[in-house]
C-alpha cells in the first residue's frame, strides 16, 4: 500500500510544480498587460525560474541523500505554498520574479528527489523507463490543467486587471494538499544512505567527476537542446497566439493547452512503443516530423490577417496544428533521462538527476530569452522558425548518444 502511496505522491508533486513552472508563458503575457513591461523584459521571468533551478540542483544534488528525498520534497511543497499565499498581496513585476525564483528552488528539490526515488521504487530498467514516461506525461497533464486554471481568472474585458493573481490561492491549497499526502507516505531510503566515512565535499566531487564522462557529456548536450526547444515554444505560444494569430488573451492561453495535450499523449504512447521499437528510431523520426511541421505550418500563420476571433470554432488552423509539435518531440526527454539513469548505479542517480536538472534549466532559460528577443525584433513567425536550428543539432547529438550507449552495452555484455 505504501508503494502506491509514494508513487501517487510523486505524480501529485510533479503535477503541482508543472502548473507553477509552465505558467511562465501565461504570466509573461499577463505582466505585459497588467504591468506594461516589454516582451524582452518579460522574458527575464524564464531566467528567474531556471537559474535558481540550475544553481539549487548543482549545490544540493550531490548531498541530497543526507537531507533525505522525502524531507526535501516536503520542504519544497511547504515553501512554495507559503509563497503562493503572498503573491496576490503584492501585485508587482518584481513579485512575479520572486515567485519564479521560489518555484525554481522548490522544483529543483522535487525533481532531483523524484528522479532519485524512481531508482528505489522500480525493479528493472523497463519498469524505470515506463514509470519515467508516465510521470513525465502526467507532468504535461499538470501543464494542461494550468492553462485552464489560469485562464479562468483572466478578465478579457479588462486585460490590465490583476484579478488573475487570485489563482495563486488555489495553487497554495494544492501545494499544502500535496504536502499532506507525501507526509503520509512511506519511503525506504536505506539503500542510498550516505557513508559515514565520506564528506559532503567528496560527494560533490563525485558529481563533478560524472560530468567528464563522454556519455554524460553528450547526454547533457541532448538535454540542454531538447529543453531549449520545448521551453522556447511552450513559453511563447500564448504570446504567439495573441499577437500573431489575433486570439483573445484567455483563448490564447487555453489554446496553448493543445501543446500540453499533444506532449502528454506523445509520452504516454511512447511508453508503450518503446517496449517494441528502439528508442533511437522513435526519437529520430519524431524530430524529423517536428522540423517538417514547422516548415509547413508557420506559413499558415501569415495568412490569418486581421480577422477577429471569438472562440475555438473560428480560430485559425495554425492555432490547432502548430502545437502538435509537442507530440513529435515529447518522448525525447523522458527517454534520454531513463537511458542515462539506467546506465548508472542507484547511488549515482541523485547527482546525475542534479546534472539533468541543471542543464535542463539552462536550456529553458536560453531558449526563452533568445525567443523573446527574436519575437521583439523579428516577430513571432521568424522566432519560431529558428527552432529548426536546435532541432537539427539535437538530431546529431542523439546519434552520438546512441553510439555511446551501444558501446557501453557491448562492454557490459561481451560476445
CATH class: Mainly Alpha
Strand content: under 5%
Individual helix count: 20
Strand-pairing-aware structural class: mainly alpha
How many beta-strand elements? 0
The CATH homologous superfamily is named MFS general substrate transporter like domains
The overall average pLDDT, rounded, is 82
Helix and strand layout, with pairings?
Blueprint: H1 2-21, H2 24-35, H3 39-42, H4 44-60, H5 64-67, H6 69-86, H7 93-121, H8 125-151, H9 167-184, H10 200-210, H11 214-243, H12 249-255, H13 257-273, H14 279-301, H15 317-321, H16 325-329, H17 332-342, H18 349-378, H19 380-385, H20 388-412
Helix pairs in contact: 1-7, 1-8, 1-9, 2-11, 4-7, 4-18, 6-7, 6-9, 7-18, 8-12, 8-13, 8-17, 10-18, 11-12, 11-17, 11-18, 11-20, 14-20
Question: What key phrases describe this protein's structure?
Answer:
415 residues, mainly alpha, globular
Outline the structure in words.
There is one protein chain. The protein is an all-alpha fold and 415 residues long. It has a single domain (2-186, 199-412), classed as MFS general substrate transporter like domains (Growth Hormone, Chain: A, Up-down Bundle). It has 20 helices and no strands. The protein has helices spanning 2-21, 24-35, 39-42, 44-60, 64-67, 69-86, 93-121, 125-151, 167-184, 200-210, 214-243, 249-255, 257-273, 279-301, 317-321, 325-329, 332-342, 349-378, 380-385, 388-412. Helix 8 runs antiparallel to helix 17 (332-342). The N and C termini lie far apart (42 Å). The model has no long low-confidence stretch (mean pLDDT 82).
